[in-house]
């Protein structure tokens, strides 16, 4: 008797649409917001490195970043401030290394490098931090 009730037919017809909507919404889910977890991503150590390429002199930062959260992160954007001996900011760089992925509860090395605009002695100290990232479980 229940199978032949009209409401059963409506529910049976709507079930594929509901399943499609759930699949579609999960496909475009952006995951967790990095701002809620930014205190759990830390730069453990970092140092200034200098180099020379065909296009000119470079300055970079090599270090280790640690993820203390339960979320894996991707597309991590590093922000680097460079200071001279007097403590004055002399240069700034933000970079998102393509394909950089940081698993949950793990630490990895990173490198941010770019063309140097000022003389090498101007780069005495640096401060590195992570300013944004995307949930590594999200599709987009």
**β-strand number:** 7
CATH architecture identity: Sandwich
**How far from one another are the termini?**
46 Å
Shape: elongated
* CATH-defined topology: Immunoglobulin-like
β-sheet strand percentage = over 45%
Query: Could you tell me the radius of gyration in angstroms?
Result: 24 Å
Largest sheet: 4 strands, antiparallel
Number of domains: 1
Residue-averaged pLDDT: 89
- The CATH class is identified as Mainly Beta
Helix content: 10-25%
Report the structural category. alpha+beta
Unreliable segments of 5+ consecutive residues? none
Order of helices and strands: HEEEEEEE
Number of helices: 1
Brief rundown of the structure:
Helices cover 16% and strands 47% of the residues.
How does this structure look, described?
The longest helix has 22 residues, at 6-27. The relative contact order is 0.23. The model has no long low-confidence stretch (mean pLDDT 89). The chain has one domain (34-135): Sandwich (Immunoglobulin-like), CATH 2.60.40. Strands 3, 4, 5 and 7 form a 4-stranded antiparallel β-sheet that branches. Strands 1-2-6 form a 3-stranded antiparallel β-sheet, with no helix packed on it. The protein is α+β, with helices and mostly antiparallel strands. The protein is built from 1 helix and 7 strands; from the N terminus they run αβββββββ. 16% of the residues lie in helices and 47% in strands. The chain has one helix spanning 6-27; strands at residues 41-53, 56-67, 73-83, 89-95, 101-102, 106-115, 125-135. The protein is elongated, with a radius of gyration of 24 Å.
């Amino acid at each position: 008797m229940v199978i032949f009730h009209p409401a059963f037919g409506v529910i049976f017809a709507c079930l594929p649409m509901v399943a499609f909507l759930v699949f579609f919404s999960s496909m475009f889910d952006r995951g967790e917001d990095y701002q809620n977890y930014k205190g759990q991503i830390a730069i453990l150590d970092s140092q200034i490195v200098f180099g020379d390429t065909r296009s000119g002199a470079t300055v970079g930062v090599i270090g280790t970043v640690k993820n203390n959260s339960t979320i894996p992160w991707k597309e991590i954007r590093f922000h680097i401030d460079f200071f001279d001996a007097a403590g004055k900011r002399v240069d700034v760089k933000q970079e998102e290394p393509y394909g950089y992925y940081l698993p949950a509860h793990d630490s990895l090395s990173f490198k941010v490098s770019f063309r140097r605009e000022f003389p090498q002695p101007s780069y005495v100290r640096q401060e590195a931090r992570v300013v944004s990232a995307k949930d590594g479980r999200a599709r987009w």
